[in-house]
Design a protein that fits this description.
The complex is a heterodimer. By secondary structure, chain A is of the alpha/beta class. Helix content of chain A is 44%, strand content 8%. The longest helix of chain A is centred in the first third of the chain and has 18 residues. Classes of the chains: A alpha/beta, B mainly alpha.
Chain lengths: 219, 196
């Protein structure tokens, strides 16, 4: 009796299997959709954010610029107005709002150049870095301290006090030389050497010495 | 988490060993379902046995549906899956040659090796033919190279080229499969039964 029942059910076995397939496939269509997490994993992103590896110091960058390292690409993430006012030499302006545009992608998502992002501080540059890092773009760096730090260290370096160690003086000379490279003039460069007027030729007044007349005669 | 090897859950050194294990299981299943008989394979074209169509279509569907469920649940990242690159004309011409060989010989490359393993003489001849074909192709590769490397479309899938939602695609594909199973069953019943 039981066998008969089983056989009855089994007669429809292909129908049942086909039904299961259709239900499973239909389930895929009916499942509620959710936004998938794009880019790298959350844990990876967090550990990248904590790590200070992304920072490049202003001294390091100045050194690269002066040596005209062709592998560095500077990207200014401030708005256009600030960019036009002042920026680092040969920088490209990609404002933060336009960071994920198609045009900017070719600068950011590539493996050829080392990209250095900077803004006034490193605040906006960090934001840009996080956005790009999440999309798994490579070779991105952030200028530590941004343009302000650049100004304070390279353009207008602080003269070390007398009591500071020798390294501070070395750093200062480097920064001073760098700032000269970037077009800062120092007063000592223009020390006007007051030329002494060539001594006037002395007027030689020849005084005819009366020749002593030889004593004539004599006694 | 998955795919396991690209994400380092299983070290990459294991992939050959895993491939061998999967190959052994695959060969066993092929042989035990009778696919090492050229008559069973040719049956699709003569309309008396559609086991090949049903088995491979079902296998593709089960893995497709399973993969999308695993992707939905986060066990696997479907974008990391390997997609075979498409060389359009090379694939079309190669497919035609393969189809002719399939009908004429009654084997596909995988099942022919299965049949060699159980000692079928026609399969041995077939495999020797494959080797000769491989030899000719590699000797004349310079001639075939433009066709072999031309019309490259990238690693595209049907969902990319048709521009449809993958879930709907899977659903429609399932319906097509089941309709084709039903039609093939009707054809099989109309044909004379052949015992082999």
């Amino acid at each position: 009796m039981v066998k008969k029942k089983v056989a009855k059910v089994l007669a429809f076995r292909y129908m049942i299997l086909a039904g299961i397939l259709v239900i499973l496939a239909g389930g895929l269509v009916l499942l509620p959709k959710y936004e998938k997490h794009e880019g790298i994993k959350t844990e990876q992103l967090l550990s990248n954010i904590i790590s200070p590896e992304r920072y490049i110091s202003t001294d390091n960058l100045a050194d690269k610029l002066i040596n005209q390292d062709p592998s560095y690409l500077l990207i200014d993430v401030r708005d256009e107005k600030s960019f036009n006012k002042y920026t680092l030499p040969n920088a490209i302006n990609i404002p933060l709002a336009k960071l994920l545009d198609e045009d900017s992608e070719m600068y950011l998502n590539q493996g050829q150049y080392d990209v250095v992002l900077f803004s006034n501080d490193n605040f906006y540059a960090d934001q840009a870095w996080i956005l790009c890092n999440r999309l798994n773009y490579k070779n991105l760096h952030v200028l530590k301290g941004g343009v302000n730090e650049w100004y304070n260290t390279i353009i207008n370096p602080l003269k070390p006090a007398e009591t500071m160690p020798a390294e501070a003086f070395e750093l200062y000379t480097f920064r001073k030389a760098a700032s000269m490279y970037f077009g800062v003039a120092y007063p000592e460069q223009f020390k006007t050497v007051i030329k002494k007027a060539p001594p006037k030729p002395k007027k030689v007044i020849t005084v005819k010495k009366k020749k002593k007349a030889p004593a004539e005669g004599g006694c | 988490m998955g795919p396991l090897i690209p994400n380092g859950v299983i070290p990459a050194e294991w992939d050959s060993i895993i491939a061998i294990l999967i190959g052994i299981v695959f060969g066993f299943v092929l042989e035990s379902s009778g696919f090492s008989s050229s008559r069973k394979l040719a049956g699709v074209f003569y309309g008396y046995d559609f086991a090949v169509l049903k088995v491979f279509f079902t296998a593709a569907l089960v893995s497709l549906i399973g993969m999308y469920y695993m992707d939905y649940l986060g066990y696997i990242d479907i974008n990391q899956m390997y997609v075979h690159p498409t060389y359009l004309w090379g694939a079309i011409i190669g497919g035609v040659i393969m189809g002719v060989g399939f009908v004429a010989g009654g084997f596909c490359p995988g099942t022919s090796l299965c049949a060699v393993a159980i000692g079928k003489i026609d399969a041995i001849v077939y495999v020797v033919g494959i080797m000769i074909g491989v030899f000719i192709f590699s000797e004349l590769f310079v001639l075939f190279q433009p066709l072999y490397e031309g019309s490259f479309l990238g690693n595209i899938t049907l969902e990319d080229s048709l521009g449809v939602n993958p879930y709907w695609f899977v659903f429609i594909f399932t319906i097509i499969a089941i309709v084709s199973f039903v039609i093939s069953d009707i054809i099989r019943k109309r044909n004379k039964k052949i015992f082999y």
